[in-house]
Structure formats: structure tokens, C-alpha cells
Amino acid sequence: MCHDVVFKALLSDFSADSKSEPNLVASTFEHIKNAKINLNTIDNLHVQCPPPWEEHQGAVYICIVMLVEYHVYQQLWYLIEGSAEVSDFPKEEAMSTEDSDVAAEKQRINAYRTSMLTSKDCTDSLLLVNLYKRYGSYIAVDHICVGVPDQECFGLLGQNGAGKTTTFKMLTGDVVVTSGNAYLKGYSVRTNIKQVQANMGYCPQFDAIIGQMTGRETLVMYARLRGVPEENIDYVVNSLIDILLLNPHADKLSEQYSGGNKRKLSTAMALVGDPPFIMLDEPSAGMDPKARRQMWNVLSQVRASGRTMVLTTHSMEECDALCTRIAIMVNGRFKCLGSPQHLKNKFGQGYTLIIQLGTLDDGSTAPNQPVIDFIAENFPGATVFDDHQGYIHFQVPDSGVTLAHVFTLMESIKENLNVQDYSVHQTTLEQVFLSFTRAQVQSKEDKSKSCMTKTCCCICIKAGLYK
Ligand SMILES: Nc1ncnc2c1ncn2[C@@H]1O[C@H](COP(=O)(O)OP(=O)(O)OP(=O)(O)O)[C@@H](O)[C@H]1O
Ligand SMILES: [Mg+2]
């Protein structure tokens, strides 16, 4: 019989008169001697003997930790599905509609010999070779190919659910690769995930911090894990706390951090130990503008010091400021690839012309129609993008229209059409992004989450969720 069951039965018998008993030890022995333990009493107490494996819980948990730590599940998976590394190519039609830069990069990567992929001398720090991930029947990442050279900051853009985090998770070994492979500094994520992780700093999208530790303690722990010499740890940790503006919060429990400060801590955790390759999944989400700009400075310096980065963000401004090359992902595929300026030149739709109308004598805004007519007449194909509160935004398609021509015409009508001010902008990265991401389809999972019943609300019907 289990000891604690006997003890509880004795205790229930004993508790009634224990207060009146002067000698507690003597009375306890007396009760043990006299106690009538019968199994019915024990049943009434609803006390169950713990299953035998509970006695070996510690050993079981250690085994589970070891299985996870040494990626045994992934290794078994790759052993069974090993051939998928080279099979399962994308469909012909997908390849035929591919952007020329994306296709050229795919061709370049596929031309690498295996010995080159695993070579330490390869000029690309990171190589994604037909990387593919399927969750059930849903394709999250669809045969992406790219090489990220040393000292590059590569931006991975795409709207929610495009497959950015899944790509990161395959590189960190969090999820198994369905087919294809990735190589970091020549190490394969399929066979050398430990070396891949040793060369990588990672800031996950959702903060992986231990709430019961302070920010400083967390960084010290990471510094030790990353092998920073003991005498340098204080200096390294204090520098990171300083540059990421975490000083006022460094000694607070991290569970008490605000969202933005948690992101700062996660970014610091990725940078600790100066890893050669850094992956940042939306590091600036929720940061205030000052902290965000400070983080940009830090990341620019980190890159200038010879590190390579891959960054995802929903801030086009951040991408413009940091990234040397960008890929926009839609439904798990790369839709375009190149420097921010290259993408603006290639996919930009001319200029954005913003006109501010003057006011009339009675205080009302000058009429907009004469201005709209003038622009339509002089810039064929120009469309009104937005028109409110005296500001008209035109999209002028770039069909040989020079900036000089735009300025000359605008100066000539300024007086007559009561134009108070105007500005001309090149197409922004945001407009390029929007032109691609309109094509994103909702995953099955997202669709089912969007609306619970077919009669829930007219908004869903209007939005086309039900046809
Ligand atoms: N464990 C999972 N099981 C099934 N589907 C998943 C799983 N994880 C992600 N997905 C699906 O894969 C797709 C890509 O998800 P992912 O998290 O990579 O998107 P993302 O580009 O990072 O989006 P966001 O910008 O919102 O972070 C989504 O449609 C998502 O629903
Ligand atoms: Mg994500």
C-alpha cells in the first residue's frame, strides 16, 4: 500500500482530537498503532495511488528533453523522408509566371554543385535551395531559392500568413523541412542543425523569454550559453542594455516588461555573443519611434561590422532603411527579388503627385474639378488615388514623363487653378508591396477563423467571405 495513502487515512482519524493531545508525537504513534484502516475509508477519501511511472517522472522528462535537444524526431523524419531533399519540384505553370529576378536566382542556386553548398568558402552565408513546407495539405512555403551573401541585410516581406515565420522556423530547426534544404555557412539544416544554431542569433516573432528572470539575468544566461568569456560578460550585457535603451528596465522581471521592451530584450538576446548570422522576425513590432530608430542604428552597425542578417518586418520604412536586398513573399512564393531601388524602378507605377488646393475668399476650399481635368488632359492615364480636405493624390503612370515636365506644368497652373502647394514623389516600396500582396489567398485556417457562422454578420458577406 502506498505510504501517503496510509498517512492520509491516519491523519483524518487523528485530526479530530489532535488539539486536545498534549504530547503530539506520542499521540501520533498511538493513533498509528490503533488506527483502523480499511479500504472503504480510503476510497471515500478519493485518494488514488499514483501510477508507477510517476516515480520515474524525472527520468522520463530528462529523456524527453534529450529527444528534443538532439532533434531526434527531426532526424527520424529526415531519415524516412530523406529523398525529398531533391524531389517534389514546383509545378510548371508556377515557374512560367515567375519574375525574372526570382527565376534567375533559382537558376543560380540550382546550378550550385553539392560540394559548393556545403563549402565554407561559398560566398553566400545562407542558401535556401527549393525550400518547401507543407502543413497537411496547406503549402506554407513553396520552393523558395535564394542566396544571402556575407554582410547583407536581407528583408523578407509579405502580408500576414505569407510564410515568413515558417521559413525562419525551418532554418532554426523548430519545424521540419518538407522538402528542399537550407545551408548556413555550409551547414545543412537537415543534418547539422546544431552547427546551424551555433552560428545563428534568432529573435523570434513571439518573445521567448523567461518571465521570472530580469532582463539582465536573461542576457547573462545567454552570454554564458553562447560562450562569452566570464570576464567579458558584464561588459557585453551592459553594452547591449545600453544600446537597446533597456537601462531603466534591466533589473525588472521580464514578465513585467511592456510589449516594446520585450522586443528590445529579444533583439538583444539575438545579438548576444556576436553571432555571424542573425535572424530577426519583426524585431521592431511595438517599439516607439525613438527605440525603433536606435535599433536601426544598432543593426546597421552590426551589419557594417561584417555580420549577415535576415529581417522580416511590416514597416516599409524599416526595410528601406536597413535592407540591401528584399524579397516579397505571397502564398509562400517569392514574387520579386532585388534592392529596394531596383524594385521601385521595376514595379513602380510612375509618380505620386499630391496637390493642395488653396482657399477662396469665403474661406471654402477651391474647386477640385478644374485641377483633376487639367491633370487628366496633360498626363494620360493619371488617376485620382485619394481626394479629401483639399488634398488630391494622383497616380501618374511613368510613360516617359520626366520630373522636369511635371514641375513645369504645375508651375504654369499654380496661379490660375488656385493650387497652394504640390509635391511629387517616386512610387514607394509600400505601393510596390501592395501591388503584389493583393494576390494573397487566405489559408483554410484563416477562413474558418474569420467567421463562425454563415449568418454572423453582413460585414463578412460584403467582404466576400461567403459567396
Ligand atoms: N503549425 C501550423 N499548422 C498549420 N498551419 C500553420 C502552422 N503554422 C503556420 N501555419 C500556416 O502557415 C501559413 C504561414 O504562416 P507564417 O506564420 O509563416 O506566416 P507569416 O508570414 O509569418 O505571417 P505574419 O506576418 O502574420 O507573422 C499561415 O497560413 C499559417 O496559418
Ligand atoms: Mg510571422
TrEMBL record:
GO terms for cellular component: membrane. The keyword Signal does not apply. Keywords: ATP-binding, Nucleotide-binding. PANTHER family: ABC TRANSPORTER DOMAIN-CONTAINING PROTEIN-RELATED (PTHR19229:SF250), ATP-BINDING CASSETTE TRANSPORTER SUBFAMILY A ABCA (PTHR19229). It comes from the Eukaryota. One of its GO terms (molecular function) is ATP binding. CDD domains: ABC_subfamily_A (cd03263). InterPro entries: AAA+_ATPase, ABC_transporter-like_ATP-bd, ABCA, P-loop_NTPase, R2_ABCA1-4-like. It comes from Plakobranchus ocellatus. Residues 126-356 form the ABC transporter domain. Gene3D superfamilies: P-loop containing nucleotide triphosphate hydrolases (3.40.50.300). This is ATP-binding cassette sub-family a member 3. PROSITE patterns: ABC_TRANSPORTER_2.
